[in-house]
Design brief:
Layout lengths: L5 H14 L4 E3 L13 E7 L3 E3 L9 E12 L2 H14 L9 E3 L3 E4 L4 E3 L6 E14 L1
Parallel strand pairs: 1-2
Antiparallel strand pairs: 2-4, 3-4, 4-8, 5-8, 6-8, 7-8
C-alpha cells in the first residue's frame, strides 16, 4: 500500500513554480544579514496533508493537502504578475513520483495588501490551492 507523503507534493509545486521563472522560498524568506529581497518572488506554505480513504476497505492511499503561495512584489502590479505566473504553473496536474495528481484547485485568498513593516515596503497576495493525488 502506497502511503502518501506531503514532501514530494511540495517539491512538485516548487518545481512547477521555478519552471515558470519564479524565485520560490519555502516557509519564509532568508533571514541572513544583508539579504535583500528580489523585486518579485513567491513564498510557499503547506499543511501536512491528509491521507484519505480511497475505498470502503479503508485503504488510506489518496492524498489531499492545502498549500498557500504568497505572491510578493515591489509594487501591486509585480505581486499580481507573480500571481499570474503561479496560476500558469499550477494550471496542469503536478508531477509526483508514483502518484496520479489532479490539477491543483485554486481556492483564492484575500486581496493584495501592502506591508509597510519592511523596508522597502512590499505588496503581498496569498493564494491557496488544494492538491490531490492517488497512487499511479
Amino acid at each position: 500500500m502506497a502511503v502518501p507523503a506531503v514532501l514530494p507534493h511540495l517539491d512538485a509545486v516548487q518545481a512547477a513554480l521555478a519552471g515558470v521563472g519564479l524565485t520560490v522560498y519555502l516557509g519564509g524568506t532568508p533571514t541572513a544579514a544583508g539579504w535583500s529581497p528580489p523585486d518579485k518572488y513567491a513564498v510557499l506554505y503547506a499543511d501536512s496533508g491528509t491521507a484519505v480513504r480511497e475505498s470502503l476497505g479503508d485503504r488510506r492511499t489518496a492524498f489531499a493537502a492545502l498549500v498557500q503561495v504568497t505572491c510578493v512584489g515591489a509594487s501591486m502590479e509585480r505581486a499580481l504578475w507573480v500571481a499570474d505566473r503561479v496560476r500558469l504553473a499550477l494550471s496542469v496536474p503536478l508531477t509526483v513520483a508514483d502518484r496520479a495528481s489532479w490539477r491543483p484547485e485554486e481556492l483564492g485568498g484575500p486581496p493584495a495588501q501592502r506591508d509597510d513593516d519592511v523596508t522597502p515596503p512590499l505588496w503581498f497576495l496569498p493564494v491557496q490551492y488544494r492538491l490531490q493525488s492517488i497512487p499511479a
